[in-house]
Specification:
Glutaredoxin, 5 helices, globular, 208 residues, 17% strand, 5-stranded mixed sheet, alpha/beta
């Protein structure tokens, strides 16, 4: 098999948090702005960007990191894809990392399986696409929906949690830009003007 960044990804290695956690047996309190972001180390389905597995430390840029809980099947994600790529580009241009994390149960939605993640990433995705098969990372963050975004500062504290904007399925109806605004605030050294919004999207598909 070819090395990281080339060819196709092999089946994902085990990955997750740095400590055992059962997502369904013990739900963690959600991470809110001001909390220190949980660490992770997850297999990467995007052969074109990043290594075979990516940790929070690997993904962190000098000015921070955006973690996007996402998937393949959700129409709110599909409707947002060009804007998600745009915000990833903006993040990189401002010295921030960007990763997508898929935590959905592929038994419920086969479109969200590892193999389909690999296929989706091969269609030009510009950021690591990480597989949270155990759902431990979604649990540790308290993620509820796809898409849902966490802007993390270089000190690993969460500066923003919530939506990209107010119309994920239809960009023509978007009237807000909270995540983009939060990036601007963080980079300028200002307090994030709106650190918390409610995400709009599909629920995370938890395993039984």
């Amino acid at each position: 098999m070819q090395g990281p960044g080339h060819g196709q990804r092999r089946n994902p290695p085990a990955g997750g948090l740095n400590h055992p956690l059962s997502p369904r047996a013990s739900m963690s309190p959600p991470m809110e702005p001001g909390s220190v972001a949980p660490t992770f180390n997850l297999p990467n389905a995007n052969a074109g960007v990043g290594q075979d597995s990516v940790s929070l430390a690997d993904a962190m840029g000098k000015n921070g990191l955006i973690v996007a809980f996402t998937c393949n099947h959700c129409p709110y994600v599909v409707g947002s894809e060009p804007r998600i790529e745009g915000i990833a580009e903006k993040a990189r241009g401002n010295g921030m990392g960007f990763v997508g994390i898929n935590s959905n149960d592929p038994v419920m939605y086969e479109a969200d399986s590892w193999d389909n993640m690999v296929k989706r990433a091969a269609k030009g995705m510009t950021y690591p696409y990480l597989h949270d098969d155990s759902q431990e990372v979604a649990t540790s963050f308290g993620a509820e929906r796809t898409p849902e975004f966490y802007l993390i500062g270089p000190d690993s504290k969460i500066e923003y949690r919530g939506r990209l904007d107010d119309s994920p399925r239809d960009p023509s109806h978007a009237r807000t830009s909270e995540l983009s605004d939060a990036i601007d605030d963080l980079v300028s050294g200002s307090n994030v003007r709106t650190p918390r919004t409610e995400s709009i999207g599909c629920s995370v598909k938890w395993k039984n």
